[in-house]
Specification:
alpha/beta; Nucleotidyltransferase, domain 5; about 120 residues
Length: about 120
Amino acid sequence: MKLCITSQGDNLESQIDTRFGRCQYFIIADSETLEFEAVKNPNIDGMGGVGIQSGQLMSEKEVKVVLTGNVGPNAFQTLQAAKVDIITGISGTVKEVIEKYKTGELKPVEKPSVDSNFGKK
């Protein structure tokens, strides 16, 4: 399954970035093979709408699950519309999070975890 994990770096040993729309990198990984692509977030410095833009990017990349620390209401709606499951409250390294997901420890959420101003500089 194609996962997206928000990350502070560009590899599986990187720490999780707690922000979705303004994370440093999106690690797009296959949950079975651990093959991955590191995508530098093109929306990190956007003035507004970064959650929506990042959500649209996940749809374009055909991601099925987003794993992140927090997600705001606009990103949440965009991801839900694209039928992407959202898991929040994660921490650790990208690889640790993928392993936790594979064992079923992590469950999708039903609502945004933060308001629309979270993560702004």
